[in-house]
Amino acid sequence: MSILVIVEHDNSSLKAETLKTVNAAQKIGSDITLLVAGFNCQNVVEAATKVNGVSKVLVADNAAYEHQLAENVSLLVTELASDYEHILATALTTGKNFMPRVAALLDVAQISDIIAVESSDTFVRPIYAGNAISTVQSLDSKKVITVRTTGFDAVATDGNAEVVTLNTVTDAGLSSHVSDELTVSERPDLGAASVIISGGRGMQNGDNFKLLDGIADKLGAAIGASRAAVDAGFVPNDMQVGQTGKIVAPDLYIAVGISGAIQHLAGMKDSKVIVAINKDPEAPIFQVADYGIVADLFDALPELESKL
Amino acid sequence: MKVLVPIKRVIDYNVKVRVKPDHSNVDLANTKMAINPFCEIAIEEAVRLKEAGTATEVIAISVGDKSCQEQLRTALALGADRAIQIETDESLDALNIAKLLQKVVEEEQPQLVILGKQSIDSDNNQTGQMLAALTGMPQGTFASVVKVEGDKVNVTREVDGGLQTVALNLPAIVTTDLRLNEPRYASLPNIMKAKRKPLVVKPAADFGIDLTARTKLLKVTPPAERKAGIVVESIDELVEKLKNEAKVIS
Hints:
The complex is a heterodimer of chains A (308) and B (250).
Chain A: E1 2-6, H1 17-26, E2 31-38, H2 42-49, E3 54-61, H3 70-80, E4 86-90, H4 93-105, E5 110-114, E6 116-119, E7 122-127, E8 132-138, E9 143-147, E10 162-165, E11 175-182, E12 195-199, H5 210-219, E13 222-225, H6 227-231, E14 252-256, H7 262-268, E15 273-278, E16 291-294, H8 297-307
Helix pairs in contact in A: 3-4, 5-8
Chain B: E1 2-6, E2 9-11, E3 18-19, E4 26-27, E5 33-35, H1 37-51, E6 57-64, H2 69-78, E7 82-87, H3 94-108, E8 112-116, H4 127-135, E9 139-149, E10 152-159, E11 162-169, E12 172-176, H5 188-194, E13 199-203, E14 215-221, E15 230-231, H6 235-244
Organism (chain A): Colwellia psychrerythraea
Pfam families (chain A): ETF, ETF_alpha
Domain Electron transfer flavoprotein alpha/beta-subunit N-terminal (chain A): 3-181
């Protein structure tokens, strides 16, 4: 069974989540090819050749793919699709953008956000913000799948795959990139961090998020937020953890001033250990927390920082 | 220009869904239903485009049984000019929904189709992108800003690293993210007026599309429960537990 996995990257480095998507692919079959579509993405190609269990790395290096425009990438993947029974991408914003387009061009359904593989045509995926878990069988001959990485461990990077350069360029000419406004941070990505500390509406304003910095520094943590904090403009959108934001499952998740709406819980309740700091003892976050402390966060945070 | 807004009737976002005891599906009997929150944002955006003089007509559309007329009436109360129900009792895959919408796009020729990025029930995040593929239109997904400028629309998208702005040739597909706008509430006079706005019902079978299911739902189970945790009395106790019991910090 031939499987194509599309590599998630920013032209300079391969995103660690791809290693988890490859793990999902290995649960389906063993003949795995990676596709790197990008521009001046040599480092990514090099990293891709080292991914465990991969035989080939297809490389489409062209300005048309620099910004992962869905119109262009989906044409490329569709063109390659005839050689593969399964096509997988990571369920991050890039894969979520172009993969359904691929599926429709191939006239097949997409199975989104799988968290487990039952067999080559049957997959497990959460629905209703993770309040129900569905097992779905694909009836199409070709399977187009996005993988929720919290369900899979990363594979090793001890491989040695062959590089195949693609010469076709698929530029749909429908869209163009204007600008990026990316958050620059020294901290780990939310998707890759083993510790995350998140703030909610209880933080009261953006400035108070600085109270999380010292703790994050000591724990090597990423900083996240609830939707309420993002909607209120305290912090940028890329920090949002939840049903429709980032889905995370770190070893330790510290929720500060977050009440725990089901939409937020959907994004973090698979974390190994959850800590809740909230002054409202009735807050639903305490129902999923392993350790809760009922306290004013403005007292608790400085004390926690000093005692770590 | 015409704007088409496909919407979905879903469980109210405040309601926690229950799984049926036989694990065949979730139990939606007597559950409060509403417009999918992202679809509500899509309607609001279309209505604002009309209020700004950019759009001339806003058409709301939904695929489902008779009950989705309730959500279409809400869309009309929020400012849509007319509504279309594509009637079916089946729960269709996103691809088949997109194929039905494609036919309506061909007929209505909208310059912009605005959809929610995902529905909060199936959490698929597919229909907008699939419709874009089928109609050959560009797509601006997860939009937080939409600006129509001449024969293009600039869409600022919420992506993993922050924001990305793309320019799309019109006609185009836009899917909404949470920060695009804050939807208004329907006023009582507008709710009354909505009852007289046109709502056309078209049977799905009349579209001549093969709507055979592409996926089969084998079972639905409740998620694993987290075991109840404890409330600690002090930060000292918390740090001690994290170090020695949970062993997640050193």
